[in-house]
Amino acid sequence: MKEVNVDVAVMGAGTAGMAAYRAACETGVRTVLIESGEFGTTCARVGCIPSKLLLAAANGLHDARASRRAASKARMRKARMRLRLISAACLSTCDANATTSSTAS
Ligand SMILES: Cc1cc2nc3c(=O)[nH]c(=O)nc-3n(C[C@H](O)[C@H](O)[C@H](O)COP(=O)(O)OP(=O)(O)OC[C@H]3O[C@@H](n4cnc5c(N)ncnc54)[C@H](O)[C@@H]3O)c2cc1C
């Protein structure tokens, strides 16, 4: 095993460990950073950042569904309005026809 002489040994290269390592290095002392697990902080690998991406994706999906529902409601309103106009036009044509035929007879 290799022996290393240092002034400061920081355990864990997480958010806190990296900040501690940087701070110790800035003072000019011999410093070592020891990491036993995966590279990258918990925040960057599995914590804050990926969870916010997941939340952003879920929010995007939620918004897309909501706007599709709103668009579909607007389409239904338009179709109902068109139907009402067509019915009104039919009724007035029927009335006119009835008046004409009753006058004619
Ligand atoms: C899902 C999730 C979402 C989160 N969201 C947020 C958020 O939105 N906002 C927020 O502020 N915080 C959030 N956090 C918390 C944030 O990730 C942690 O508070 C932060 O990462 C802690 O930093 P740390 O330096 O203490 O530990 P870590 O970043 O976990 O680093 C510790 C490091 O030490 C190493 N280690 C442990 N034991 C040893 C050992 N004996 N020898 C050598 N190395 C060792 C580990 O392998 C690890 O790399 C979230 C956490 C999770 C899990």
Write the layout of secondary structure elements.
Layout: E1 8-11, H1 15-26, E2 31-34, H2 42-45, H3 48-104
Parallel strand pairs: 1-2
Bound molecules: flavin-adenine dinucleotide.
Helices, by number, come to 3
H/E element string? Answer: EHEHH
Write down the overall mean pLDDT: 90
Amino-to-carboxy terminus distance: 118 Å
Strand order of the largest sheet: 1-2
Say which molecules are bound, naming each kind only once. flavin-adenine dinucleotide
Share of β-strand residues: 5-15%
Secondary-structure content class? mainly alpha
Shape: rod-shaped
Largest sheet: 2 strands, parallel
Count every beta strand, where a strand is a DSSP E run of 2 or more residues.
Answer: 2
Commentary on this structure:
The chain is 70% helix and 8% strand. The model has no long low-confidence stretch (mean pLDDT 90). It has a two-stranded parallel sheet. The protein has three helices and two strands; from the N terminus they run βαβαα. The radius of gyration is 37 Å and the shape is rod-shaped. Among the domains are: 1-38, no CATH class; 75-105. Strand 1 (8-11), helix 1 (15-26) and strand 2 form a beta-alpha-beta unit. It is mainly alpha-helical. It has helices at 15-26, 42-45, 48-104; strands at residues 8-11, 31-34. It binds flavin-adenine dinucleotide. Flavin-adenine dinucleotide binds next to helix 1, helix 2 and helix 3.
Q: Could you write a compact summary of the structure shown?
A:
With 105 residues, the chain is mostly helical. The chain contains three helices and two strands, in the order E-H-E-H-H. Among the domains are: 1-38, no CATH class; 75-105.
